[in-house]
Amino acid sequence: MKKQAAILIQSDGDSRGVVPANGWDFTLEELQGFVEGLIEIVPLTENVIMVVNEEGKGVLPINVPATIIAKAQGAIFPFDHIAGNALMCPSDMVK
After folding, report:
1. What is the C-alpha to C-alpha distance for residues 74 and 41, in angstroms, rounded to an integer?
2. Could you give the 3-state DSSP secondary structure of residue 91?
3. pLDDT value at position 3?
4. What SS3 string covers 23-89?
5. How many CB atoms lie within 10 A of CB 33?
6. What is the C-alpha separation between 55 and 18, in angstroms, rounded?
7. How many angstroms separate the most distant Cα atoms in the chain?
8. What pLDDT, on a 0 to 100 scale, did the predictor assign at position 88?
């Protein structure tokens, strides 16, 4: 049985479901490919995380949908933002 898909929230506002190549959990390379660089984990809830580009601020465009989600969960400061693509998924999909 495969796990549910993660959601790739692109900085241009589009989003799509994605699944790990092995059907269970993402490799570091997969995560880096989604966010186009080094990863940072932003905990959203007890079981859901957002994977973002660690060095995206000031370089990549602001990701408005991901920023709204992160702020709504209290995961980032009110004046902060998410830059570049973001992957939202169950925390056990990232080892």
Report:
1. 14
2. helix
3. 57
4. CCCECHHHHHHHHCCCEEEEECCCCEEEEEECCCCCCCCECHHHHHHHHHCCCCCCCCCCECCEEEE
5. 13
6. 23
7. 41
8. 98
Q: What is the pLDDT of residue 2?
A: 52
Best CA proximity match to 68, nearest among 4, 21, 9, 16: 9
Can you tell me whether residue 24 is helix, strand or coil?
coil
Query: What is the mean pLDDT, run by run of 10 residues, along the chain of 95 residues?
Result: 79 95 95 98 97 96 98 97 98 94
Please give the pLDDT value at position 1: 47
Residue 48 zone, left/alpha/beta (φ > 0; ψ -120 to 50; rest) = beta
pLDDT at 58: 93
Residue 64 has a pLDDT of: 97
Q: What does the alpha-carbon distance between residue 69 and residue 66 come to, in Å, rounded to a whole number?
A: 5
Q: Which two tokens stand for residue 63?
A: 């990701």
- Tokens 């905990």 sit on residue: 43
| Token representation of residue 44 | 């959203």
Residue type, 12: D
